[in-house]
Write a structure and sequence with these properties.
This is Catalase. Its cofactor is heme. Keywords: Heme, Hydrogen peroxide, Iron, Metal-binding, Oxidoreductase, Peroxidase. This protein has 534 residues and is of the alpha+beta class. 25% of the residues lie in helices and 16% in strands. The chain has 13 helices and 12 strands. It binds protoporphyrin IX containing FE.
Length: 534
């Protein structure tokens, strides 16, 4: 065929559309060059060596070789969907955040659900915390509410995050177990970190094996602030309540599903949305002030504590509907970059030491994972409101300033300009005190809410918690670690402790853990411990 035989068409802009012999668009290289043969490399004779002139082969393989980016260091396995957030009523009295001003207004959103510990290719029904990360593209910039399906966290201070995550991930020498918490390193860390006891009770409960993403709650975990136009602050805790209610699977079901269909949760969300069965959550808030916070014997800055809904009922303020799957998993779900520090004017942080650490960590991790400072240029991360700044250059820059001006103030009368009125104002909280590394006394009680959670469960749910503890601890090979866990359980519920101790073969019960337990202990079993199999 000669060039004259090809079907050519010029578009409105003069661009050349080329069609292959069967009418499909012509395959091109990334540089736009049309490809004649995508099946055979260029060779010297049909049976001869390959030639380096084959730029099409080299470009195709080069691009394939670079397809992978690092998986997330946590929450590697995730699944996302698009949708919108709809505001129920004006919250102007509490917050000046634009998305909460006008009843009925819809704001686009993207959500990524995830497991925490497993790698990208792990199974969906692991006993694990589920991430519930929401990006709302507001008219004042993106708001990321990066939450979990459990309302509290393992640790009180972000400085411990690398330790808790290292302990739950596969052990560094043997590189197992994958995607589960049933191993010595995890329980070693947990039992040396009594502040994790409340979260552990949730993780051992049915909450950690949800039936699907559509039947999960979500929580912002930390105390945040709403700030209104008069710069008045109200503390706020965020909750997502699924319209379908809360459902989990039983452990034996989870084990079977993991084997039969490791993509169970993905498939469920895909099928629901593709068939028009759009899942919904209500965004609910607990609103309170400092005087109310002072009535508790725990600290509202402590992320291992929740405010019981019986004491402070949640108020629904809007709904989230997921109605569209991504066109491309990598472009959207894999490249989406959530960051707790993304807040619009009217939403602010508290001094929760876990939140403060997260506000540093997420930007740092996105730079590494997405390869440079321009990840906000990706469509999934870009704001959907007008935005203007003088940031320029760097790898993959797609939005450099146009014209002469790339700084401000300037004499050329060119914007953008800062605005003390429209711009983000941090709540001017009064702070003072010595510079110290010190856990506040108000963070000291690690057992009351763990107990409260356990006794709030129905008898079958309590049995599931006991069975989960027995299963998980039976995988722990080091006797003193099992003993330490049972000694913590004694501080939570005596019956639960003795049930677990008995099933693990203890002849006598270890004494209850010291609530002010030092975090470093030697690994010698206490004299009280005796184990049948020894
Ligand atoms: C990722 C939640 C604590 C560092 C995530 C994701 C969620 C999440 C949902 C996945 C986001 C996605 O789907 O892309 C939480 C919650 C926490 C918590 C609810 C406590 C209340 C922390 C802390 C740190 C941390 C204390 C570090 C100091 C990270 C990192 C990622 C991540 C590095 C990976 C982000 C990425 O590569 O995209 N977290 N997290 N998280 N989190 Fe957290």
């Amino acid at each position: 065929a000669t060039i004259h035989d090809q079907k050519l068409h010029r578009g409105a802009g003069g661009e050349l559309h080329q069609f292959a012999e069967d009418g499909m668009p012509v395959l091109t290289t990334a540089q736009g060059g049309p490809v004649s043969d995508d099946q055979n490399t260029l060779r010297l004779g049909a049976r001869g060596p390959a030639l380096i002139d084959d730029f099409h082969f080299r470009e195709k393989i080069f691009h394939f070789d670079h397809e992978r980016i690092p998986e997330r260091v946590v929450h590697a396995r995730g699944y996302g969907a698009h949708g919108y957030f709809e505001t129920y009523e004006s919250l102007a009295a509490y917050t000046r955040a634009d998305l909460f001003q006008r009843p009925g207004e819809k704001t686009p959103a993207f959500v990524r659900f995830s497991t925490v510990a497993g790698s990208k290719g792990s199974f969906d029904l692991a006993r694990d915390v589920r991430g519930f990360a929401v990006k709302i593209y507001t008219q004042q910039g993106n708001w990321d509410l990066v939450g979990n399906n459990i309302p509290v966290f393992f640790i009180q201070d972000a400085i411990k995050f690398p330790d808790v995550i290292h302990s739950v991930k596969p052990e560094p020498d043997r590189q197992f177990p994958q995607a589960q918490s049933a191993h010595d390193n995890f329980w070693d860390f947990i039992t040396l970190t009594p502040e994790s006891m409340h979260m552990i009770m949730w993780v051992m409960s049915d909450r950690a094996i949800p039936r699907s993403f559509r039947f999960m709650e979500g929580f912002g975990v930390h105390t945040f602030r709403f700030v209104n136009a008069a710069d008045e602050s109200t503390f706020v805790k965020f909750h997502w309540k699924p319209k379908l209610g809360l459902q989990s699977v039983a452990w034996n079901e989870a084990v079977k599903i993991n084997g039969a269909d490791p993509d169970f949760h993905r498939r469920d969300l895909w099928q629901a949305i593709q068939s028009g069965n759009f899942p919904e959550w209500e965004l609910c808030v607990q609103l309170f002030d400092q005087d109310f916070a002072d009535t508790f014997d725990f600290d509202i800055l402590d992320p291992t504590k929740l405010i019981p809904e019986e004491i402070l009922p949640v108020k629904p303020i809007g709904r989230l509907v997921l109605d569209r799957m991504p066109d491309n998993f990598f472009a959207e779900t894999e490249q989406v970059a959530f960051m707790t520090q993304n807040v619009p004017p009217g939403i602010d942080f508290s001094n929760d030491p876990l939140l403060q650490g997260r506000n540093f960590s997420y930007l740092d991790t996105q730079l590494k994972r997405l390869g440079g400072p321009n990840f906000t240029h990706l469509p999934i991360n870009a704001p959907k409101c007008p935005f203007h700044n003088f940031q320029q250059d760097g790898h993959m820059a797609m939005r450099n300033p146009v014209g002469r001006v790339n700084y401000q103030p300037n004499s050329w009368n060119q914007g953008p300009r800062e605005s003390p009125v429209q711009g983000y104002r941090h709540f001017p909280a009064e702070e003072q005190g010595p510079k110290v590394r010190l856990r506040p006394e108000s963070f000291a009680d690690h057992y009351s809410q763990a107990r409260q959670f356990y006794i709030s469960q129905t008898p079958p749910e309590q049995r599931h918690i006991a069975a989960a503890l027995i299963f998980e601890l039976s995988k722990v090979e080091t006797p003193v670690i099992r003993e330490r866990m049972v000694s913590h359980l004694s501080n939570i519920d005596e019956t639960l402790a003795s049930k677990v101790g008995h099933a693990l073969g203890f002849k006598s019960m270890p004494k209850p853990a010291d609530a002010a337990m030092p975090t470093r202990q030697d690994l010698e079993p206490s004299p009280a411990l005796s184990i049948v199999e020894q």
